[in-house]
Amino acid sequence: MTNATKLITPVSERNIHDIKTEREQRIKNHSKKNAKLMLENVWKRFSLLRIEENEDAAFTYIFKNTIITGLIKRTVKRYYSAWKKNSRLSEHDFESVVYEKAWKIISDYSPQYQQWYLYEQLQNGFNQACKMLLRTEGLTKDRNTHKQNAYHKSLNLYAEVLNDSFSLNDSYVLNDSINEAVSMLNEDELKIYNLFLHADNIKKVTLENICQELNLKHRQQAKRLLDNIRFKLKECLIL
Question: Which of 137, 141, 183, 182 has its CA nearest to residue 165?
């Protein structure tokens, strides 16, 4: 069952508790933990304003929040800086699609039923919105010229682990994305990342290898960690 299917399946009180516990455990050592938790409280106030006043008042309130505006500005700056010399897209073009995506994600957010915090969904959604804008402009051709072997291996790791096509404008964007993604990994996830990074053939890295590296007793534990890594890499990597 996919995550999307789970979200539309009836959820019991036990499921809600499990989702809440899993989310809290997952970000326990994240560098952005405080921002993610603070934004949850901001969203609660937003949802109350929608009921007590109206939607316009609620969105005016939440779009003044510095966590959200900071995330928007950083995303827009990263994409615009990477493409301003090679396209006719303006900073406003990126900003427009990001705000549109933010509006939809915030409006649809339901914390008790969803595995990912609002901060994480916004971060992923902003990247996807900018990628879609680039695709509509036909600007996703691969133009990389990387020389370092370790760097090449990082690229392969992203492409292989995510099972996704790899396409990027230049090394500036990729380096920023890799650094951002790796900074989000906790200690166990970083060990798995390095296991892939230093493997002779990452396709041959198995759940058993991960269990052995981390002294895990069950394959499901390894799979859960690997799924977390996949999400973090995918939300930061700019395709």
Answer: 141
The overall longest dimension of the chain from CA atoms, in Å, is 59
- The residue assigned the tokens 């919105």 is 129
Those residues with Cβ within 8 angstroms of residue 47's Cβ, 6 or more apart along the chain or in another chain: 58
Residue with tokens 């006719």: 88
Q: Which long-range contacts (CB under 8 A, 24 or more apart) does 216-225 make?
A: 222/192, 225/188, 225/189, 225/192
CA-nearest of 228, 116, 123, 122 to 177 is 123
Q: Give the tens place of pLDDT for each residue, 137-161.
A: 887 644 443 334 444 444 445 444 4
Q: How many CB atoms lie within 10 A of CB 43?
A: 21
pLDDT tens-digit series, residues 24-62:
777 777 778 889 999 999 999 999 999 999 999 999 999
Residues of the chain with pLDDT under 70: 1-19, 113, 140-181, 183, 234-239
| CB contact at 8 A, 183 and 173 | no
**pTM value?**
0.55
